[in-house]
Amino acid sequence: MVYAILVCHAEMNAIMNKNSADVKGCTIYVALFPCNECAKLIIQSGIRKVVYASDKHASKKSTIASKRLLEMAGVECCQYEPKRRQVVIDFDVIDRSGLSQLPDSPPRQSPVPGPQPEPADCADSVRRNLSALMVEQAGDQGL
Length: 143
Ligand SMILES: [Zn+2]
Hints:
By secondary structure, this protein is an alpha/beta fold. Helix content is 41%, strand content 11%.
């Protein structure tokens, strides 16, 4: 299996691309119980707890080794037990109910003669919408 040596596991990706200085004392949430290579990274990074959804590879040597490594390092491991078996995301409900997470668009203005403003690029549009959203949220909090 060539893919096995070419891919970067999710645990490595999460640890290497974290949004903090380090992950010492943190908990990592994973879909599958980490393999032995990821267990080494988890231990070396200082993560203290692993929460996993599935242990379907429990009989594999890599998983057995992983459990032994994590146990020896004192990393707590526990299986996530969801209260619901599934979550359904219905993207059509947004169109049907008229719900939107974006602020209302400003009313269209009729074209005015004279020089027209430069069309805003996408980043400007996102910045304006974000500013409007932040103002709305600040208003909601009475700020
Ligand atoms: Zn792995």
